[in-house]
Amino acid sequence: MAAEESTTSSSPPPLLRMEGVSKRFGPTVALDHVAFEVRRGEVHALIGENGAGKSTLMKILCGELRADSGAMFLEGRPFRPTGPLDARRAGLSIVHQELSLAPHLSVLKNIVLGLEDTRAGFLHRSTNRARARAALARLDHGGLPLDSLVGGLSVGLRQVVEIARALVFESRVLVLDEPTSSLSQGDAERLFDVVRRLSAQGVGIVYISHFLEEVRQVASRFTVLRDGRSVGGGAVGDTAEMIHLMVGRSIEDFFPRVDKEIGAVAMTVSALAGPEKPIEASFPIRRGEILGIAGLVGAGRTESLRAIFGLDRAASGTIAIAAVRGGQPFAASSARPDRSRRRGLAMLSEDRKGEGLAVAMSVADNMTLSAPERVSRFGFLRLGERSRRVREIAGGLHIRSATPGLPVQNLSGGNQQKVALSRLLFQDADILLLDEPTRGIDIQSKTEIYLEIGRLAQQGKAIVMVSSYLPELFGICDTLAVMHRGRLSRPRPLGEWTAESVMRYATEGSGE
Ligand SMILES: Nc1ncnc2c1ncn2[C@@H]1O[C@H](COP(=O)(O)OP(=O)(O)OP(=O)(O)O)[C@@H](O)[C@H]1O
Ligand SMILES: [Mg+2]
Question: Best mutation site among 23, 24, 25, 438 for ligand 1, i.e. most ligand atoms within 8 A of its Cβ?
Fold first, then answer.
């Protein structure tokens, strides 16, 4: 189709139109004749369950994947990018769901990657620096050293750099694929400000998020993808309507409660401190208990879990595990991941890609990686048993098109998260440390995960769950502690907290 898009003289063509876009990956139909439209200056939410095809559609738009069929139009003109750089030059920027930065390169190199003018001498190098700094400054991170390596930054800061990379160009269309998943509240607010400013300048913004509260805050229209088809959309309004379109039915019970008993203390952490954070974290956790840890991003929650598990070395403090050495406390600084696993601990790390998953390996290998003994007997892998368990767990969490042999990198972002979580379920540990277990996960599967966590507690496991999503902490936890600048409050029964008192403690460190 080479001709310009036919339009009536009264209505100008939309900024972006995609029609009849289809894409298969082998047997998987990722997109099936999808139509999608973005107007000038609008924030358009693209929503749908994990594996619905959102990221695939946007990768086609940004020249990273080629559609099997279909057409795209930018301001009415046919648009067929030959690759990502071509799309970038045409004014399309994307912030990827899975951070796509090169960890061994500097902040500067990552931001201007692919844009360096090869004829450029010193002058351009300093312009590049200025442009990178300006992009970071728009996100209020102008002070971030341009020469530091991206690999050494926290997940949140890496996300800031990823966004700055998209802002460094004048874009006509900006795609944000789950941009806030690791951002602090302040960084997210600043991103929303930038989004509003760009949209006021006429830039069309595609916003992908599983947080409907966020969608309601920033977007004016929405489109729903389900199983690779566009099933509806319209003006952003009622959350229930959006959910209904996404899931195909209403969800009554977001936070299923499981009947369970809280038993004896399984682990006691005392006066835990890291090199920087935490400054002080003490809590007991009982069998069958779900302890939620709330707080702002950067407060030291992740660092606490990492120190307990031994991913980072604690500076001081003790840990006592009831089932180990008769519950005698040992120095937290002696914790190492392999020892912790033997002691009955399992951890879901925040950085799934860096520490959680071997993305080139199959779903089955990833699930059973750290617990091969569960599916082997006398040293032989029981393949039938393994497949059965993998299918059972994958089915329970609705991991779409996850045949056990599929490489994890071929799964959608949310489904990769589910594999990371499934791996823990496979380990059959007594004490689970979960860092943001539902991040990037769609509403329906979130509910499955809550149910699974409840069932684990019902079996007597002790669960510590860090989350930035307050409703889920209130929805499924028994006790809650809040972290403020490295200090953890005393855990209290859920009924003694309110959303306000949690927020007050998280921001001011008082209000208990
Ligand atoms: N490179 C690939 N090879 C094989 N299958 C793929 C590949 N990329 C995506 N898929 C499949 O295409 C489907 C759509 O995936 P996509 O990543 O677009 O989903 P999504 O809507 O972005 O989901 P999420 O909310 O989890 O990010 C999924 O079934 C996924 O497994
Ligand atoms: Mg995606």
Answer: 25
